[in-house]
């Protein structure tokens, strides 16, 4: 019924066992992993999503910096020009593009239900970066929240069994 | 500072739309090939990016005002939707591990939201709220 959503086989337990054999292996290996990598497919996908969140958090920081430098809107065209000539803003949006590409490559092999919540790591990087860059104060609750998120991601990363 | 109902609705709708972004990116990713033509024909990827962009508009508007302790958990509702869709559309198994991991993540996001204070209730100008939209994917 939902065939157009892709060819996931419900039969495979985890989605990571390479039932399609060599062809599948070759296509994934060339696209996402350095040759000779000893990481499992799941670890590779999880690492890609983690990288995706790092880029996403850096993007948010740059967009925040860029947005702070923007003048008050005086018109659609002048606002657009101000945004286009705003270097941090544009680098920020580019990093968002890169993080999306990384997410897509990760989703090639991994399970969506396992990989997608890992994106919550972005909260963790943003918290760390806002201390380092903006010298924001982290109260204990925020620190505890960050630790709990990392724990949750670690559980997801360890396995979908 | 109370959280306007409009903000809650905007953020909830944004997280719902964003969850479909994840579904379509996943669908597009599974039929990814290493040639330009198939990439251009991959409408699922384009749809996924489109859903994400649309959801980010809702987040930007919704997070402009209101308490982050209320709104952040609503942003992360998208993970719950996505879990549902991955079962429904891709036949993925919902295991105890996934529920445990997601439960911890949601709890953590709620705590971060509770701990996040807003420096000023009003945002100076139109582009600034972009910075308040924490999770775009």
Instruction: Describe the largest sheet of chain A.
Output: none
Estimate the mean pLDDT confidence of chain B.
83
How many DSSP H or I helices of chain A? 7
The number of E-state strands of chain B comes to 0
Give the arrangement of secondary structure elements.
The complex is a heterodimer of chains A (161) and B (137).
Chain A: H1 22-32, H2 41-69, H3 76-84, H4 87-107, H5 112-115, H6 121-132, H7 140-158
Helix pairs in contact in A: 2-4, 2-6, 6-7
Chain B: H1 5-30, H2 36-41, H3 43-62, H4 68-75, H5 77-90, H6 96-115
Molecular structure report:
The complex is a heterodimer of chains A (161) and B (137). In chain A, helix 2 crosses helix 6. Chain A is mainly α. The relative contact order of chain A is 0.14. Chain A contains 7 helices and no strands. In chain A, 65% of the residues lie in helices and 0% in strands. With 137 residues, chain B is mainly alpha-helical. Chain B has 6 helices and no strands.
Which tags fit this structure?
heterodimer; A: about 160 residues; mainly alpha; 7 helices; disordered N terminus; B: about 140 residues; 6 helices
Summarize the structure.
The complex is a heterodimer of chains A (161) and B (137). Chain A is mostly helical. Chain A is flat, with a radius of gyration of 19 Å.
């Amino acid at each position: 019924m939902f065939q157009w959503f892709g060819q996931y086989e419900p039969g495979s337990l985890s989605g990571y066992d390479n039932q399609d054999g060599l062809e599948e292996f070759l296509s994934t290996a060339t696209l996402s992993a350095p040759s000779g990598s000893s990481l499992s497919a799941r670890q590779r996908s999880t690492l890609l999503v983690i990288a995706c969140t790092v880029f996403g958090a850096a993007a948010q920081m740059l967009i925040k910096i860029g947005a702070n430098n923007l003048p008050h809107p005086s018109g659609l065209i002048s606002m657009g020009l101000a945004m286009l000539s705003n270097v941090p803003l544009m680098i920020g949006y580019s990093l968002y593009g890169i993080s999306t590409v990384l997410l897509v490559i990760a989703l090639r092999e991994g399970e969506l239900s396992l990989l997608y919540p890992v994106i919550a790591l972005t909260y963790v990087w943003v918290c760390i970066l806002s201390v380092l860059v903006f010298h924001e104060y982290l109260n204990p609750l925020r620190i505890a929240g960050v630790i709990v998120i990392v724990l949750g991601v670690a559980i997801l990363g360890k396995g979908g069994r | 500072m109370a959280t306007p109902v409009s903000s809650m609705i905007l953020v909830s709708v944004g997280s719902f739309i964003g969850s479909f972004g994840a579904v379509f990116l996943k669908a597009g990713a599974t039929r990814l090939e290493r040639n330009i033509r198939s990439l251009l024909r991959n409408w699922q990827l384009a749809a996924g990016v489109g859903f994400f962009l649309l959801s980010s508009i809702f987040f930007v508007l919704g997070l402009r005002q209101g308490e982050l302790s209320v709104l952040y958990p609503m942003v992360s509702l998208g993970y719950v939707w996505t879990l549902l869709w991955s079962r429904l559309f891709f036949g993925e198994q919902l295991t105890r591990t996934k529920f445990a991991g997601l439960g911890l993540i949601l709890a953590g996001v709620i705590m971060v939201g509770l701990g996040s204070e807003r420096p000023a209730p009003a945002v100076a100008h139109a582009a600034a709220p972009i910075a308040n939209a924490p999770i775009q994917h």
